[in-house]
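Case study 2.
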Amino acid sequence: MFCRKPKEEQISKRRRTNKSKRIGKIESRTGSSLIMVVCVSAFLVAFALAIVYTGSMLMARANRRLEQERCYQLASSFARVLDGELARYSGWELETLEADAEYNKSFYRFSCKFLEDASYQEYSPEHPELTTFYYRHNAGAEDDKYGKVTLILYKENDQETDVMAGILPSNPASGTGGSGDTVNPIETIMANISRFTFHVEVVAERDGMTYSYCTSYDTQVKYTDDAVEFTVNDMRIHWNDTDKKWLDNNGNICDVPDDAVINYKITPELDKLRSCIFKKTILEGENPEAGGGGGL
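Prediction:
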């Protein structure tokens, strides 16, 4: 019996060793699984955060786009209202305009005054701050949600020659005007007076956005007879369209030779403006994605 005891101890020892190894493998597998669970959980959390971030970014962009669209709509709708007023009255004769109850407070009348009044200087690239005119609507606190609008106006004289003064191509009293018939010299002069290009820019500010909408117009004007002054040899003369004759300052018939040089000069004034036509030539709107017209 004493001889077999060491062998039993060895067997028992091997069993304990094998059990320890099995326990170690089980713990190793458990640790690996735990690490995998932690990694998967971290990935899912990161993925969820990425989805939330992407969603918030998309929402922010959608809100920004909506704000830009509102700002664009404010500028473009305001510009269309002004364009509608210019189109409504374009070409109306002075008598018809004065009979209209809304003419005196219209944007059309103000635009005509802006063009004819010398106190509004012609646009100069060297001095844009002195020749560009701003009109800002300052909304009250309760109106802030509707945005703010600034109107920018300027006029350019892009004519190479002075259309407001010159020499008559022929003496109308001689009956040699064009078709051989006597032609009213005032109508001849008024046939093509395109003096200014009129620029109207609307700048809208809303929800931190700025958007500008610019419209340009060629203008065609006609003046009343008393806005035109004729001279021959430094003497002032007047045209009588009923008798087709020239008259002096006293109303007497003035004998003007057929080959006489007859000068004319037009004095522009709002009250002497017979009609004005605004012809839209350029329509521009800044890209709202780019933040509009760059601010003021």
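The chain has one domain: 51-290.
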